[in-house]
Amino acid sequence: MKKTLLIVAGILAPLALQAEPTEGAKKERPARAPRELPAEVIAKFDKDGDGKLDEEERKAAREARRAEMEKRRAEMLEKFDTDKDGKLSPEERKAAMIARFDKDGDGVLSEEEKEAIKKEMPRGGEGRRPGGKGGEGKGEGPRGKRGPKPAGE
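Request: output the structure for the sequence above.
Response:
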């Protein structure tokens, strides 16, 4: 009887260790290495001069970054949200992209200017758009999930 019990326990123990946590239980995330901050960020927010940012200094840096992003978003909306609905439509986003990357000012993006977009923007210009959801960075937009490009693009 003891032998049978030990065999069953020996079989079940590894299975129990491999079992998924029950619903509602939190899975542990792997620890991430602290992100290297640019020297200018450390210089600006390192109030105690120890060469690194403590939690309070990091919080101040995050808040400043959030405020800067909100300011930029508001500027983009002010300049390009022509229908004043609080977000940029695909046409308004296109106008913003042309204004930003059209170096020769002809109102059309040349192949060279399109290449500059691909180099500067994550995933070649896809993702989050200023002033709107823009598919939340999943490549969803006016063409759907990475649908075919319309003629002339």
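Helices lie at 2-18, 39-45, 55-80, 90-101, 111-120.
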